[in-house]
Structures are given as structure tokens and as C-alpha cells.
Amino acid sequence: MAPGDLQYRVMIALLRGMLLEKHPNQAVVDVGGVGYDVTIPVSTYAHLPESGSEVRLRIYTHVREDALALFGFLTQDEKALFEKLISVSGIGPKMAMAVLSGIPALDLIGSIRRGEVDRLVRIPGVGKKTAERMVLELRDKMPAPSGEEAPPAPGASGGALTAVEQDVLSALLNLGCARPAAEAAVRKSRVGGAPPATDTDFEPLFRRALELVR
């Protein structure tokens, strides 16, 4: 099959199956015995069920001459925002995922609508020119929320990082943060005297660490 044929014949819009693996930027979904490797933003990862559970992801299929990549989202709002971001000159799927991981969706929409370039450049990987293009090209095109919500998330000191803290560290590294700074931010983001992080702590811990590493 020629690359051109692939573009028109393979357009996956949704996957529903068993979640085999989940990582801060990746999910592997078994659909009828076929494992699909899907790139996901932190906002989706934070609300995925446990491995072995059924999951449904809305999919954006990105086709190039030499590859086919799947980008997955738990809600239509996330997917719509991703599609708006990749319509901006100079923003590809990888950067769009970094943007969605670097700032909550509602904050991103508000910052673009208000032209808050200074806030947008705090997202890892986003420079001033890219932030200005986002505002210029998307200010009047931000998608209205569909009302669809992600399901509830499944249920500072030294020493080894917990499993959740390791996931937060991995997410920061995927955004391009230097490992020493990222690890220091994870440790600093711990609340003094608080118990070790649990699965439900991933997103708030990630947001705190992201603020500290900037």
C-alpha cells in the first residue's frame, strides 16, 4: 500500500479496549488482540483507570509519509483543543501534547483568549514567538467546552521517590526538563509532613513540580 493510500484508508477516531500499560505520556490499549500505542497528555494520564481495566480514548490519527501516530484523549474537549493547537503555524502534534501537559486546558483557553503571552511562555518548549502565534491565530477560535468531563482519577524530604513521584519525574523529563532540576522540583513539591503520594495525587503533584522547575 502506498503512503497516499494509507492516509485515506486508516483514520482511527476512537479506541475502546483493555488498558495494558499506562505512562505519563503513553498508553497501550488492547483492542481485539491488537495493542495500540497511543501518545497521551498528562491530563489524560491522570484520569486513566488501572491497567487491566476497560478504557475508551478519542483518537487523532497523524499520518506522515513514513509513519502513522495515534494521539489519545479521554474527552472531546481535550481532542478539540489539540486540533486547534496543531492548526497554529509551527506547532506539531508533539508540541501540542507538551502544551496540553504543561497547563490545564481551561487555563490554556483563558490565557489565549486574554492574550497572556507571558504565561504561555512558561510552558516548557513554548517560546515567545510561538506563544504570540497561539494568541493571534486562536484567540477567537477557542472551542467551547462540551460539558464532557473526565472520569474521577482512580483510586518534602529526601529518600527514594514513590511510584507516583517517579511518574511525575517521567512526565517532566518528557516535557524536556533537565533531570536534576526536575527531580529537585519533585522533592520540593512534597508538602511538609504529608504522607507519601498516592495514585490520586499525580496531577496536583505534577502541577506543583512544574511550577517549581520553571
What's the arrangement of secondary structure elements?
Elements (H helix, E strand, L loop, with lengths): L2 H7 L4 E10 L2 E6 L2 E6 L2 H4 L8 E10 L4 E6 L2 H11 L6 H10 L2 H9 L3 H4 L7 H11 L24 H12 L4 H10 L13 H12 L1
Parallel strand pairs: 3-5
Antiparallel strand pairs: 1-2, 1-4, 2-3, 4-5
Task: Write structural notes for this entry.
It is a single chain. With 214 residues, this protein is an alpha+beta fold. The chain is built from ten helices and five strands. The chain has helices at residues 3-9, 42-45, 76-86, 93-102, 105-113, 117-120, 128-138, 163-174, 179-188, 202-213; strands at 14-23, 26-31, 34-39, 54-63, 68-73. It has a five-stranded mixed beta barrel with strand order 1-2-3-5-4. Helix 3 (76-86) packs across helix 4, helix 8 (163-174) crosses helix 9 and helix 8 (163-174) packs across helix 10 (202-213). The mean pLDDT is 82.
Number of separate helices: 10
Mean pLDDT over the residues: 82
The major β-sheet equals:
5 strands, mixed, barrel
Order of helices and strands: HEEEHEEHHHHHHHH
Radius of gyration: 18 Å
Key descriptive features of the protein:
42% helix, single chain, 214 residues, 5 strands, alpha+beta
In short:
Strand 1 and strand 2 form a beta hairpin.
